[in-house]
Design a protein that fits this description.
binds adenosine monophosphate; 7-stranded antiparallel sheet; alpha+beta; binds magnesium ion
């Protein structure tokens, strides 16, 4: 998944800890083989390879779960989160390798746009099968799979009787019970304060997930403008808002996907989405007229450890 997974846990002894952690990492590895779009022979790519041929592909429970959740989030965010952005993401990656990247010509974006749109994904819940209606579609789970894998790794640890653990999938973090004698896991979030000054705040979390998404660190610079690896599915181009979004939810798959979605929606609609959805809390840092600002949902403060 292009990131480093880390696990912190409390166990009765070294051997119990190591055995459980090894199984949890193995689970992540197995999921990577299914969900990655970098691995040519991943199950995900085998589904994409059949796009437009009007056939159904029966898929494994993890792939079915992630695609189903991704469609739910796409509908709730008006397509801001859309796993069919694969062709745009590949274009972005090509630009990222250029010594002097240029914006793609409109003709290319128009052509790719014919293979975009979550409405072109069909799922059959009985047979656990997926069909992609348009040719050239490429699914990309980069905005949701890390959170899901973290959830699954935590479940493995819990199956081994470990209650108090943290799984970090490169910034998508899922935690179980608090460390012994503590109220929660302390997770440091780099952001801005309400006045726009860079600062770190600490979240105190138990049995929760937190994901951070943003276009501050991964971007292609063209004519002085930064185009993030998070794509606006409506334009095919990377976001330029330089935002930093943190979302807290009950599980990693939800926090991860909504953090990416809120990045696309921007501060106004993004905050509205967070406020309207009682299962989500979050904070959005962004730049406006050269100034850095931050807004947060009204219940976000209750997670902050002062
Ligand atoms: P994240 O770091 O969780 O915000 O996810 C970013 C990754 O999600 C990108 O590297 C792409 O693989 C994928 N992605 C980019 N734009 C979108 C989008 N609008 N909807 C869903 N996934 C996206
Ligand atoms: Mg995400």
């Amino acid at each position: 998944m292009g990131t480093l997974f880390r696990i912190a846990l409390y166990a009765s002894g070294d051997s119990a800890a190591n055995a459980a952690a090894a199984k949890a990492f193995q689970r992540v590895e197995d999921l990577n083989n299914i969900l990655s779009d970098y691995k040519e022979d991943s199950e995900l790519n085998r589904v994409s390879d059949r796009s437009g041929d009007s056939g159904w592909t029966t898929v494994s429970p993890p792939l079915f779960r992630v695609i189903t959740k991704a469609l739910e989030v796409a509908k709730k965010t008006d397509g801001a989160f859309d796993i069919t952005v694969g062709p745009y993401v590949r274009l972005w990656r090509r630009m990222n390798r250029e010594p002097e990247p240029q914006l793609p010509p409109k003709k290319i974006l128009d052509k790719l746009s014919q293979s975009i749109g979550y409405q072109n994904i069909r799922i059959d819940s009985i047979r656990k099968a997926v069909a992609l209606l348009k040719p050239g579609m490429q699914l990309d789970l980069g905005g949701i799979a890390k959170g899901y894998a973290a959830d699954e790794a935590l479940k493995v640890l819990q199956d081994y009787g470990i209650r108090s653990a943290l799984v970090d999938a490169g910034g998508d973090i899922v935690v179980g019970d608090a460390p012994p004698g503590k109220k929660g896991w302390r997770v440091a979030i780099r952001s801005y304060n309400k006045k726009g000054k860079a600062r770190t705040h600490i979240l105190l979390l138990a049995n929760r997930a937190v994901a951070t998404s943003g276009d501050l660190f991964r971007y292609v610079e063209i004519d002085g403008k930064r185009y993030s690896h998070i794509i606006n599915p409506k334009t095919g181009l990377g976001l330029t808002g330089q935002s930093m979004v943190t979302v807290i939810a009950a599980d990693g798959i939800t926090a991860d996907s909504y953090a990416s979605a809120v990045s696309v929606l921007g501060p106004e609609s993004g905050l509205r989405l967070l406020e309207e959805n009682p299962d989500l809390s979050g904070s959005i840092g962004f730049r406006e007229n050269g100034e850095t600002k931050r807004v947060a949902s009204s219940d976000y403060e209750k997670f902050i450890d002062e």
